[in-house]
Amino acid sequence: MAAKFKIACHLITWGGEQRRDPEKVLREVAEAGYEGVEGLAASSPEELVELAKLAAKYGLHIVNVGAPDPRMRIDFNLTLGNDAAEIPACRRADFGGLNPTDEDFKRAADSLKELIEYAQQFNVKPFHHAHRGTMIETVEDAVKLLNYAPGLYLLLDTGHLLAGRSNPLEAIEKLGDRIAHVHLKDFYAEDPETWDNHKSKWWEEGRFEELGKGNMGLDVKAVLQGLERIGYEGWVTVEQDRPTHHPPAETARINREYLRSLGY
């Protein structure tokens, strides 16, 4: 049975090129075989229309579009027909530091209440990124924050969970009905045994890698099968946070071909 979710490509690897020559970048994404694109932002409704038209020209749908403020981001994603939108992540530095308490998680959840209620009015799922430096670095963190914020959803970022020595499959098992978006990426540590999310040097001792080239135990096929098993129907975005030794367009193709080799 074919997966119900669709595959998008994040533009972060292209850096400033996506602003200098967006048409070239979108063409490369489409040629690599993706159905959607993430990493675009609009500063006005007029700009949103122009971006949507350009993406449509290449058969791409804009996923999780950015905007100048959180409510506008929800509005813009609603306008594009997206049923989920990212809201600002709560930073660990603002809520207890490296080792937040349950009370810190509660305060973080309370800080998102108005945005969550705004999104709920329009049946948009507001999601919080699992990301280093935020209140969600591990599956345990995600469970805590989402328990305190019943209307909040999770952006399951496999790379950042791996960096936090956490298992993305556990997140699918424990929070399947609370996952509203996925960033699929691999992680490589020079020494997996000693890697520490807070103490090790990022980009020197550890880095995100092309799919299948990490060494922290990511089973990409198991993750995708897990998403199918729970009936996930949202977008899966392949995200390469930093350029590899390949040009961005080639990395995008490598990642897409890797997923095809797994049957996706």
Could you characterize the architecture of this molecule?
The protein has helices at residues 17-20, 22-31, 45-57, 70-79, 102-111, 113-120, 139-148, 158-163, 168-175, 220-229, 248-261, and strands at residues 6-10, 36-38, 61-63, 84-86, 125-129, 153-157, 179-184, 186-189, 206-209, 235-238. It is an alpha/beta fold. α5 packs across α7 and α9 runs parallel beside α10 (220-229). 39% of the residues lie in helices and 16% in strands. α7 links the parallel β5 (125-129) and β6 (153-157). The protein has one domain: TIM Barrel. It is built from eleven helices and ten strands. It is globular and about 50 Å long. The strands form two sheets. The protein has an eight-stranded parallel sheet. The chain has a two-stranded antiparallel ribbon with strand order 8-9.
